[in-house]
């Protein structure tokens, strides 16, 4: 799972004082009844790809640079500032601090030209009850010359007590036979800062031990979307029309070592004692 907090300064505050979260506010009711309060109008913007930033992103994630089409994960980066704007809106019924990014689904309908200008829109589709709280689904679409070429659905969980909740499997516990191990990866302690610089996702839990401790982590944790991109960079090209689905099971602490495993169209990351961090698959896009 990936924890969400608004962007914070990229350097610890001199003298060790704690930076104040910029969008901190009183928690609001966390219930599907808040659906009526969801932002009704998508946030929209035209975005042209910065080729220098794209190349830096590709290097950080392990993709080959210089391709005519950008990776399937990159529109998520283009849309990230708008996603933050939606979640920081007073109309968003869940508290931003502490949101957990639980899953992502991205559908690419054709090759995505790296030199294109895209029309990006972001909206909240709805809320759903979850055994650990309330989950919001954020829908993002990217159009090229008016044609839908990419879309995503991301779920974010606001954790709180729920009446009559039934126990479920513990996060990070293996629920199926592990996929065949392919490689052992050692992630450096600065991965969060390097990815944050190219993605603009400078969530404090990914940057430094000091800023991560503000949110209950002894060490920074890797961005969930970086771990997905890092895995996809190892897979054979899946064609121009594809769907990627991934679930974030447990945070990857930095620095840290994980096992990358894959078989067929599936991939996963596991840690010590077979702890499951990430599962995913790549399929042809639905017609």
Topology:
Blueprint: E1 2-4, E2 43-48, H1 51-61, H2 74-88, E3 99-108, E4 117-130, E5 133-144, E6 147-159, E7 181-187, H3 191-199, H4 209-213, H5 224-232, E8 242-248, E9 256-263, E10 266-270, E11 276-284
List keywords for this structure.
single chain, 287 residues, alpha+beta, eleven-stranded antiparallel sheet, 17% helix, globular
How much strand?
25-35%
Q: How widely separated are the two ends?
A: 30 Å
SS class: alpha+beta
C-alpha Rg (nearest Å): 18 Å
- Give the low-pLDDT segments: 6-37
Shape: globular
Q: State mean pLDDT (0 to 100 scale).
A: 84
Secondary structure tally: strands? 11
So how many helices? 5
Helix content: 10-25%
The largest pleated sheet is described as:
11 strands, antiparallel
What string, H for helix and E for strand, traces the elements in order? EEHHEEEEEHHHEEEE
């Amino acid at each position: 799972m990936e924890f969400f907090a608004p962007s914070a300064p990229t350097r610890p505050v001199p003298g060790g004082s704690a930076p104040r979260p910029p969008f901190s506010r009183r928690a609001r009711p966390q219930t599907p009844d808040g659906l009526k309060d969801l932002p009704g109008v998508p946030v929209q913007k035209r975005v042209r790809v910065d080729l220098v930033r794209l190349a830096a992103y590709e290097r950080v994630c392990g993709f080959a640079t210089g391709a005519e089409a950008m990776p399937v994960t990159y529109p998520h980066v283009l849309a990230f500032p708008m996603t933050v704007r939606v979640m920081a809106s007073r109309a968003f019924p869940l508290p931003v601090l502490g949101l957990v990014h639980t899953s992502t689904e991205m559908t690419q309908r054709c090759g995505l030209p790296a030199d294109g200008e895209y029309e990006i829109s972001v909206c909240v589709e709805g809320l759903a009850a979850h055994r650990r709280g309330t989950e919001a689904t954020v829908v993002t679409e990217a159009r090229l010359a008016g044609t839908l070429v990419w879309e995503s659905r991301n779920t974010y969980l606001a954790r709180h007590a729920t009446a009559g909740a039934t126990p479920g499997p513990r996060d990070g516990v293996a629920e199926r036979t592990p996929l065949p191990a392919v490689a052992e990866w050692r992630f450096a302690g600065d991965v969060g800062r390097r990815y944050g610089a190219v993605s603009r996702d400078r969530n404090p839990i990914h940057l430094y031990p000091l800023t991560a401790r503000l949110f209950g982590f002894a060490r920074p944790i890797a961005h969930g979307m970086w771990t997905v991109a890092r895995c996809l960079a190892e897979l054979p090209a899946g064609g121009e029309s594809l769907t990627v689905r991934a679930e974030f099971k447990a945070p990857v602490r930095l620095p840290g070592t994980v096992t990358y495993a894959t078989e067929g169209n599936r991939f996963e990351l596991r840690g010590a004692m077979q702890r499951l961090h990430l599962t995913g698959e790549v399929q042809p896009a639905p017609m």
